[in-house]
Write a structure and sequence with these properties.
By secondary structure, the protein is of the alpha+beta class. The chain is elongated. It has 2 domains: about 5-55 and about 265-405, no CATH class; about 70-250, no CATH class. It has helices at about 5-15, 20-60, 80-90, 155-160, 195-200, 205-210, 235-245, 255-260, 260-300, 300-310, 315-350, 355-360, 370-390, 400-405; strands at about 65-70, 80, 95-110, 115-120, 135-140, 150-155, 170-175, 180-190, 200-205, 220, 225-230, 250-255. One of its GO terms (biological process) is lipoprotein localization to outer membrane.
Length: about 400
């Protein structure tokens, strides 16, 4: 029989529910539970924000964007040969997929409104476009084999400004030599919540842009290539490899540079949450230290008797260690139940809404990350046990004669 564990269980089970120690014990359990729950929920929400915003950005620009160097400041650049570039990109194992694109500035005119936009032409040679995830109404662009599609996607902001709905037709004026006019049909409406995209871009078939250019581009030419990587964290290293191995006249743009403000904001969120979590762990640890101190002071008489009966300091220290371990495990179980329950409730029922104008999304996002959950549980467990050990060294200073008289 483990004597230290046995006595610890007796102390745990025999505590008076109205005693001061019982109240402090409950506070310690609640402190650990709430600390762990707040950490888990905070990371789930933070990661959810990161994933949602990054996915919205990647749906427009992927991780890397390759285009030809151009000395002018226009969005319309010299074309590149898509088949040759795709073959060169196949030598990089970091590349997951490639998506050709081309852009052209235009003016949309309806009966009552006029608005300048950028028409971005896309294709779906390697599976459905990630833009499909941003659809809020209508259907995505159809890509017929015989001719270029007349369908376009407009953002909710553009649709509201021009008073367009799904199925409406609008005239697009392209300022070039000679000037050209095309009539497109609004097949669908998208929304990302990011003004950088929603106020500017209209999505269409890349073949329309090829036909509008003068002289018209053959099917082998594109305005650029968007590259999706297997691992976003390798973006810096992969971009450097592209610079070294791809032709010198190609420009490689990282999404983190194109939208630096958004990614800087996400990094700032990370730092703030880390500081907040450190404070939570400190408070929970302090409460555990205070709880064990109070237990030792209230059990001073018992400690003196045990020492008089021959118990060593290590045996008594282990007794309070097991007591602290019991409190920690109880607090962690309760904390995990609260955190997982809240996350599941928000994930499936969206009980907490957000203003898309300020937060880029209409609800608080939740991201499930089992590894992070295990890591936070492990961190809480280790720090709590270390906190338990600190006050137990007070036991060595307790003398049996004085302790037995202690009241």
């Amino acid at each position: 029989m483990n004597v230290a564990r046995y006595i610890s269980q007796k102390i745990d089970g025999g505590a008076d529910s109205g005693s001061f120690t019982s109240s402090v014990t409950k506070i310690a359990i609640i402190s650990i539970a709430m600390g762990l729950a707040v950490m888990v929920v905070s990371f789930a929400i933070l990661q959810g924000f990161r994933n949602e915003i990054q996915n919205k950005i990647f749906s427009f620009g992927a991780h890397l964007q390759i285009s030809r160097y151009d000395t002018n400041n226009s969005l319309e650049v010299a074309p590149i040969a898509a088949p040759l570039l795709v073959e060169e990109l196949k030598q990089f194992p970091e590349v997951k997929s490639t998506h050709p694109f081309a852009v052209k500035t235009a003016i949309i005119k309806t009966k009552d409104e006029v608005l300048g936009v950028v028409l971005k032409g896309i294709a779906e040679p390697n599976g459905p476009s990630p833009m499909r995830t941003n659809m809020t109404a209508g259907k995505f662009i159809s890509f017929p084999d015989s001719a270029a599609s007349d369908d376009v996607l407009v953002s909710r902001k553009v649709a509201d400004k021009l008073r367009l709905v799904v199925g409406d037709k609008a005239l697009f004026y392209f300022i070039q030599n000679p000037a050209r006019i095309r009539q497109f049909r609004v097949s669908g409406i998208y929304s990302t919540g990011l003004d950088e995209f929603d106020e500017v871009y209209v999505i269409g078939d890349i073949r329309q842009i090829r036909e509008l250019n003068s002289p018209a581009w053959p099917d082998s030419l594109v305005g650029g290539m968007e590259v999706v990587l297997n691992d976003f964290d390798t973006i810096d290293r992969t971009a450097d490899n592209f610079y070294e191995k791809l032709p010198y006249d190609l420009k490689i743009d990282k999404i983190t540079d194109q939208y630096a403000q958004l990614f800087d904001w996400l990094q700032l969120l990370n730092r703030n949450v880390i500081i907040f979590l450190i404070l939570i762990i400190f408070v929970a640890t302090f409460n555990m230290v205070a709880t064990i101190f109070i237990m030792i002071l209230e059990r001073t008489n018992m400690i003196g008797i045990l020492k008089a009966l021959g118990a060593t300091d290590n045996q008594i220290r282990r007794m309070f260690f097991f007591r602290g371990l019991s409190l920690t495990v109880r607090g962690m179980v309760i904390g995990n139940v609260i955190a997982v329950g809240f996350c599941a409730l928000q994930y499936y029922f969206h009980v907490i809404p957000l203003d898309p104008e300020n937060y880029y999304m209409d609800r608080v996002p939740i991201s499930w990350d089992p590894k992070m959950l295990l890591l936070m549980n492990a961190a809480t467990f280790v720090t709590s046990l270390l906190a338990v050990l600190i006050p137990t060294y007070l036991i060595a200073r307790i003398k049996p004669v004085v302790a037995i008289k202690f009241d």
